[in-house]
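TL;DR need structure tokens for one chain.
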Amino acid sequence: MKNSKVTIIDYGLGNLLSLKRAFEFVGAEVLITSENNLIANSSRIVLPGVGAFSKAMELIKSLGIKEILISSAKKEIPFLGICLGMQLLFTESEEFELTEGLNLIPGKVISIPKNSKDGKKLILPHIGWNSLELSKNRNNWKNTILGKNDFFDKVYFIHSFMALPKNSSDKVANCIYGGHEITAVVENKNISGCQFHPEKSGKLGLKILENFLGQ
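>> reply
TL;DR here they are.
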């Protein structure tokens, strides 16, 4: 395994303790911070998040860490967004109001449709276990953060909004909810994102965190 140090970004909207424990369980040395100089010297960054996109971006800007997150990602160190943290990687979100994201992955964040493909009302947020399916543009998950996982592994979701990557090549895995295809994992060079919570997904989620450590 390569350098096992992980910097988890604390901007006030993340399940930091459970994420820290999960990473430590798979052998990581974890630093939780919102300090620019510490972020700048990170060898691996995790951006967690729960809640509203606009509030998250407001907090990130008020802490003065937006630019260091962008520049750190562009240094091509492993960078992982989780749940809301994955959505923040995108260009913009339509949640409540149009809000600019970190623009590390081209695309936008929209609401999960309120009705299933067969016209039934969907329960939102999408909460619970759902299966990961291979994106149509891929033959396998080799060399991605799902490299140690199997097709249809079940992981834990809780969200009302979903990401739409501009480029299909950035999609790694989907899940199906109400017949709708929802982006579950994205990857663009060194930048990855999970819409679900790997730290709440048991052994299968730990495999993902372990694989991230090996990148």
